[in-house]
Amino acid sequence: MDSTKPALDRIDHRILAELQNNARLSNKELAAIVGLAPSSCLARVQKLVRDGVLAGFHAEVDPAAVGIGIQALVFVRMARHQPRDMQAYWDHLLELPEVLDLYYVAGSHDLVVHVGVRDVDHLRELVAEPISDFEHLGQIETSLIFQHHRSAVLPNYAPEPEPAKATRSGSKPPRKTRRKATEP
Amino acid sequence: MDSTKPALDRIDHRILAELQNNARLSNKELAAIVGLAPSSCLARVQKLVRDGVLAGFHAEVDPAAVGIGIQALVFVRMARHQPRDMQAYWDHLLELPEVLDLYYVAGSHDLVVHVGVRDVDHLRELVAEPISDFEHLGQIETSLIFQHHRSAVLPNYAPEPEPAKATRSGSKPPRKTRRKATEP
DNA sequence: TGTCCATGCGAATTCAATTTGGTGGAATTT
DNA sequence: AAATTCCACCAAATTGAATTCGCATGGACA
């Protein structure tokens, strides 16, 4: 049925969690954390990237360091909801560098725009011009953000299919180093 | 005056931009991009981390892979705005794994809560129980998210103080490899 | 003009990433 | 049930990067 759903096991989820917390973990460290050999761990990470489960790796930077003095949410209600118009306005907003997040939602607002600007003047200009500059707009309401928190890691609601490889007897029966083929 | 503001130069901002796009860039690659020797580049990155400008490195994972089927914005209006109550409710929300973003804003809403849940039942339970379970709450409105976009990199409004090291004559007068101290 | 400081470089060392060939267990086939 | 296939894993080896270090350069300041 679902060709795109090999389902992630416990170790995969562990890898995702660790990399969400710290994307700079070296493969060796990650392998040690999840209890795998570096080579096996690397193979899993590469697979997760190939499958699009790991969609990117981003540094988090202090907004103040790039001159963002204030942030705001702008709630926009459209006067018309033609898909054509919505899409055009959506694309328009995405081109604004000030737009950090863009939500298209059901309910009494249509769009919620999270913006980061230099100062109040910048905010006023942004809302007055590029954001309001569109046909078929209804109400616009701007709310200053006092505080914002973003969780770094997503919850995990996925059922784990298998013990992924239950190390049944104790912890690690270290395999006897076998090497005979290339040996005098 | 400002002991914590050595101001970032052009190269620093370039580093920030690149790492926001791809936090897994190797130091060597990054150095090549920004036009620095690996050792110099590493020193800058380490400094940016020490100074808190680089606040973290996070993997971005596909919500579907962890079982998040739907996302929503929950708009909450408080009945009372006592700082004590606000803070308690804020902390309460932060403990919910479903909460992905939390905004405390001025305006007609007080809190905007971005949640990721398994399905509609999960959403109903979340809003009915943990989110509504607090005194002094006013209106609550839940809006399904149809589409969400997050920009990976912040804009840069910071003025660049100095050419960081203007290579005035041409590009790279390759320094004559000096090594005399340890030479016959 | 001389000194200090910040920043950069290259070479050397240390350590990690990646490749490869082989192993064992579990599931599947005979 | 025995044989076979397949898959994920591991260890070792190689390649290549991260990190350290001593020194050089150029601007700021006196």
Structural account:
The structure is a homodimer of 184-residue chains. The first copy, chain A, is an alpha+beta fold and 184 residues long. Among the domains of chain A are: 10-50, Arc Repressor Mutant, subunit A; 63-145, Alpha-Beta Plaits (2-Layer Sandwich). Chain A contains five helices and five strands. The first copy, chain A, has a four-stranded antiparallel sheet. The longest helix of chain A is centred in the first third of the chain and has 13 residues, at 38-50. Chain A is elongated. The model of chain A is unreliable at 163-184 (pLDDT under 50). The interface between A and B is large, with 67 and 67 residues. Strand 5 (137-150) of chain A pairs antiparallel with strand 3 (99-105) of chain B, so a sheet runs across the interface. Chain B binds a DNA duplex (30 and 30 nucleotides) through residues 26-28, 36-40, 42-44, 164-165, 175, 177-179, 181-182.
Q: Can you give keywords for this protein?
A:
homodimer, 184 residues, alpha+beta, Arc Repressor Mutant, subunit A, Alpha-Beta Plaits, 5 strands, 24% strand, disordered C terminus, DNA-binding
